[in-house]
Amino acid sequence: MSQTIFLTTVRSIKGKACARILIDSLRAFGGALCDAPVWVFEANAQNAPCADLAGNGVRVIPLNVPEGVRDYIFGDKVYACAQAEAIAPPDTQSLVWIDPICVVVSPPVLFDLGAAFDAAVRPVHVRNVGLRTTDPLDEFWKTIYATIGVNDIASTVESFVDEQRLRAYFNSHAFAINPKRNLMRRWFMLFEQLVGNQKFQTRACADERHQVFLFQAIWSALIATSLDPERIHILPPTYNYPYNLHARVPAERRAHALNDLICFTYEERSIHPNEMTDIEIREPLKAWLAAHQEAK
To answer: How far apart are CA 119 and CA 78, in angstroms?
Structure first.
């Protein structure tokens, strides 16, 4: 397989515990990618030092987020991706961002882009700030598109849980990108620009919900406008499955067994198998999760 590097960030003690489980899950269930390098970006060295995560293919990288976006939600995530792109070895074909609140349970081979794709993404789980295809542009999305240099976009997705047809809006729990496209450094540049745009921040992006998802909206628009649609791999629902929203997933789309997934996100839900009573968990995954019960 081509060179694939996994990326995540740690900003708290709880996040560090989650990152450890994420890394262990990749090593245990990653198949051909189980030994792939993992870069942990240390966003809060004073309160959550990560030196003890290093080793066994894990590299810890201090993250000094620029002051203008340091306190903005998910600014460290965007900056970590940009930094990873800047330092990735020349033979890297896939940088795989994966949030620490995710667990790998089967080989995530589609994150290895190879020569066929430049990105691998999932549609968002729910609409939140997404714009329906039948709706006119609001000021939030209009400003994002204008900053990128387009008036509107034609590509669409269907949100997985609430099944709404939206202008391209991608989930950001885990995705793969070809660093040679230089999209992640541009992502940070655009993010920094819009965070510093006071008119935008006090009007279209004044509420918490739009601020939380600004990074994801920019990323979605950038992918949709920068890449050939044929070079964007829309991943199957087994990737980034929203276990945190499991009860809301339509019955025909709901996972029956955790083992049938590739990776899932759990956010604030417990991943102790004794508490995951709404989904089947077969061995050896059940015993593995029980041994890693500190992620709650």
So the answer is: 16
